[in-house]
Amino acid sequence: MDQMRTALRGLAETAVTAPADDPASLWSQGRRRVRRRRLAAAGAVAAAVVAAGASSLVAVPAAVVHPAGATHEPAIPRNVWEARDWYPTTSEEGPPGVVAVLGGVIRGDRNGLFTVSATTGEYRLLDLPAAAAETSLTGTEYALAPDGRHIAYWIAGRPGGVPVVRDGESATRVQIGVGIYDTDDGSVEWVEFRTAHGIDGSGLMWADDDHLLVTYGERADSGSDPGSMVSVDVGTELVTVADAARRRAITIPEGGAGLTADGALTALPSRRRAVTVPLDGTAPRTLARLPRMRAFAPSSAWTSSEAIMLPGNRLLGGRNNYGADQTMVGSLAPDGTVGALRKVRGIAFVQPVAWLDDRDLLVIGDGRSSDEWGALYRLDTSDGAVTPLGTAQAGMYAPGLQFATDLLGAPMVEGERPPTVDSRWLRGGGAVLALLGSCAAILLWRRRRA
Amino acid sequence: MPDRDLEASFANYVGARRPALVRVAFLLCGDQHHAEDLVQSALIKAVAHWKRIGDDPEPWLRRVMVNDHISRWRRHRGRERLMDVVPDRAVPQHEEHAELAAALAHLAPKQRAVIVLRYYEDLTEAQTAQVLGVSVGTVKSQHSDALKRLRGVVPALVQTGG
């Protein structure tokens, strides 16, 4: 290939070298180019950082958990889903408005509550001022008013002082009363029971939209007193102590109680006796003596309140059949005798929610397949038949769900599933990826243009 | 090294090696003005890296010139048009040179670069691959294809087995 080498050298020699630019001029052009490229790279990085930061900042407050989209007439959603602890809170977004469903949610290392809007289906976490830290998720320590406009909960603070709203003083906090949260304007009505050592709250129940029934025991140096029952009139802060009930140590059974048609509270202080406690303070009277049967004893899955719910004098109870919980329904005769009890077929772990009419009860229960666990059913208390209505898959906390029972008269609406992945993290991650991608692209561009 | 020393080193290099760079560039592109542009552009780019490459800038400059030429060819190949009249350009006067220039014009830029680097710059296949940023195997195949084409145009320059 010597000929090729020789020919190439000969051809190269034909190139006429034009007068060169001054090397100093080339150098200064090179330096200007360096400055331009640095400026462009810095600008591109700054733009990428600003874009990524702005997008994440803009995205953060916009975590989308508005599944229903359109506003509708207040209604109960057919499907209730487990809430996530990153959903918007009332501190961020304000009060939730009329609430259709109230339930429990684990928020980090503590328990909390979430609501589902009756008009939009939006999920929101409740930041309740001065809430007692040890909120249970089973529905016994909070109560949603029938109209969905108030939520009662136990408040904590220093006895004889004021509710402690700030964090960091938990060591000195005990239950001192009840807070009534207004879901429309976010205000809280404090009802503090004046005690020396605080209280042990045991029951919260709405008698109607404006009357809250509260039972609690007053803490003493040694234990608690047997219990007190009070009626709180929302808005007037009038607290009526049902003296007769107090004397006889009648309390709202764990989980609430039923109401008779005349507005009196019906409770079951023992497993075999149903009583009515008139709210005017007159003496309780025995409503029914339940049959002496081991089977009707409320088991661990049952509370006495669930053993009797009396619109239409219907009766619902749990039967512990050698360890297997079984739900029975029946009716009370006017003379207080109990008619035949029938088994509820097809579902287990029946949690009563509210009466739909004189005969039918809305319940949460577990169907046969796992897809049917924690589902909403209509239970016909005359024969124990159930009809599926929707899902209440609030995880293991489904039994703690409470519904705005005034809304049960309206047709249910579909409850679309809220997002299960935090869109803020997705967007934040996307912004970081965009930033890294931009930096990589700039690096590549600089290397290719070198 | 202070900036003043770097600039002096750069000036010395440009003064000594610019004609040689122009000749390489001319062989790469076959056009006098384009060759001047390639060299000037490469030298301006080299300023940013002179601290690192100043001791032996030639390989870096070769690579930049080859890449720039290929990039320019890619950018402009779609815009070339057939014309009735050949535009004025420097044409080698010697017949052998003219034949070689015409033969090189038949090569793709990368093939042409392989021929120039292997036979004019006397680089090994590995060094050629490094300049072009390709594998040695690619250099071999490009070299083989280039010789095949040149053999069809200027057989005297390309002897079989060479």
From TrEMBL, chain A:
Q: Is the keyword Transmembrane helix assigned to this protein?
A: yes
For this UniProt record, give its keywords in alphabetical order, as a comma-separated list: Membrane, Transmembrane, Transmembrane helix
Against SUPFAM superfamilies, the record matches this protein to: DPP6 N-terminal domain-like
Stated name of the protein: WD40 repeat domain-containing protein
Which superkingdom? Answer: Bacteria
Species the sequence originates in = Nocardioides fonticola
List membrane-spanning regions: 39-64, 425-445
TrEMBL record, chain B:
Q: Is the keyword Transcription in the record? A: yes
Keyword line: DNA-binding, Sigma factor, Transcription, Transcription regulation
One Pfam family it belongs to: Sigma70_r2
Q: Where is the RNA polymerase sigma factor 70 region 4 type domain?
A: 98-150
**Domain RNA polymerase sigma-70 region positions:** 16-77
What family is reported?
Belongs to the sigma-70 factor family. ECF subfamily.
Query: Know the name of this protein?
Result: SigE family RNA polymerase sigma factor
- Tell me the lineage of the source organism: Bacteria, Bacillati, Actinomycetota, Actinomycetes, Propionibacteriales
